[in-house]
Design a protein that fits this description.
single chain; alpha/beta; Aspartate Aminotransferase, domain 1; Aspartate Aminotransferase, domain 2; seven-stranded mixed β-sheet; about 15% strand; globular; binds pyridoxal-5'-phosphate
């Protein structure tokens, strides 16, 4: 027998299927003639390595200029960017790096590869971001660095986090993989910590399929980072040697060529993401049980994704029911974003690392690896309530109106189904 919810639902399911632009193919990306021309020039030049070519060097200069920071170093992925930053800070085995459990594994694995212990700070239950307070609670006398991850394009409270780092003389690494051109109190993210790390993987604000960038204002850290992505071989020095343990994390000229063209389109794409998100914020204002993603005054949110908080007390079934309802209307969304906090994954829960050694967890303080849920109330509250909508620079106001209509209808269906 059809339920009351089914009857209400039948009224709002659109009869014609429509498809939103996707960042996994051309429909949701800005790749075009400029990228093709640059790629063609690189291939015809025959120089595909950045150690001899000029495209990656040009990209580095352009990106540094865009952020207004002296040094940018291109590398092979966002994971490589985070690894390079941590390697340059050069922790002792067993030193602790405070980070967040709501992130990409590519931001965590490099810590373990450097022999350090990721220590998870809790997050703000409304933004999913770490705060100065949650970081402070996770710090110990073994803390060697703190990572501020600007989740979904919204800046962490960098004033307070930078002050905390300065107070304890602990470097801050900004993970900006999801936050190209985001601002914290009018300063670009990536320029406030010792390092900013970016990813140009397929689904980020600009893409070369895979790729990454590290930025820093510190000349010594920059030199170390540049050598780190080059097997510790200094291409700029008259005499060089493989001075320390390091990897080949170089970006190719092919990626550099694509990104050189992409970077020209970055600001336009970010502005479009913001305009569409603001429109959705306005359309959803006043819908009971929904909290829209709005930046603090002085900050710029660049909407890598559109993350909405869903209150299950107002909307029966919460984000899971809302996602199921939206799917009927042809709109994909992700309740929870990640299914579980990172510390619930095998690598942490079972300490699977190198052979049977469990290294570097064998060096950890017990509290540093205590993943009891009671210690992470903000993390669980956030994941239980967040609904993540895909977002990209090819969305139009029309697309957003359809999303808004579907959301409003879905919320109303769920609320009526309850009564
Ligand atoms: C994507 C991402 C990374 C990893 O970047 P890759 O290029 O996929 O290695 C790291 N941190 C965050 C927050 C990310 O979103």
């Amino acid at each position: 027998m059809a339920s009351k919810a089914d009857a209400v639902r039948a009224e709002h399911v659109p009869s014609v299927a429509w498809k939103l632009p996707s960042d996994q193919d051309a429909s949701g990306r800005t790749l075009g003639a400029e990228e093709v021309a640059a790629l063609r020039a690189v291939v015809e030049s025959g120089t595909l390595t950045s150690t001899k070519g000029s495209y990656v060097k040009g990209l580095e200069a352009a990106f540094a200029g865009l952020l207004g920071i002296p040094h940018a170093i291109a590398c092979s992925s966002g994971t490589a960017a985070v690894h390079t930053a941590i390697a340059a800070i050069n922790p002792e085995p067993g030193d602790e790096i405070v980070t967040t459990s709501i992130t990409d594994m590519g931001a965590l694995a490099p810590i373990l590869y450097q022999g350090a212990i990721p220590v998870f700070a809790d997050v703000d239950p409304n933004t999913g971001n770490v705060t100065a307070n949650t970081i402070r609670d996770a710090c110990s006398d073994r803390t060697r660095a703190m990572i501020a991850t600007h989740l979904f394009g919204e800046s962490c409270e960098m004033d307070a986090i930078v002050a905390l780092g300065a107070e304890h003389d602990i470097p801050v690494i900004e993970d900006c993989a999801q936050a190209f051109l985001a601002m914290s109190q009018r300063r670009p993210v990536g320029t406030m910590g010792s390092f900013g790390c970016f990813s140009t993987q397929q689904g980020k604000h600009i893409t070369s399929g895979e790729g990454g960038l590290v930025v820093t204002a510190d000349a010594d850290l920059a030199r170390y980072a540049r050598r780190y992505v080059n097997k510790a071989w200094d291409y700029d020095a008259p005499q060089t040697d493989h001075d320390f343990l390091a990897l080949n994390y170089r970006m190719t000229e092919l990626q550099g060529a694509v990104l050189g063209a992409q970077i020209e389109k970055l600001n336009g794409g970010v502005q479009q993401r913001i305009a569409c998100a603001r429109h959705l914020n306005e359309r959803l204002a006043g819908v009971p049980g929904l909290l829209t993603p709005e930046p603090l005054a002085g900050d710029t949110h660049v909407y890598w994704r559109y993350a909405l908080m869903v209150d299950p007390a107002e909307i029966p079934g919460g984000p899971t029911a809302l996602a199921a309802e939206l799917k009927l209307g042809g709109i994909a969304s992700g309740p929870r974003y990640i299914q579980k906090p990172a510390f619930r994954c095998g690598v942490f829960a079972n300490q699977r690392t190198f052979g049977e050694s469990r290294f570097p967890f064998t060096l950890a303080r017990p509290e540093a690896v205590d993943y009891d849920a009671d210690r992470f109330p903000g993390t669980f509250q956030y994941l239980d309530r967040v609904l993540v909508l895909p977002w990209n620079e090819r969305y139009t106001i029309d697309d957003v109106d359809r999303i808004a209509d579907a959301l409003v209808a879905a919320v109303s269906t769920l609320r009526k189904g309850q009564s």
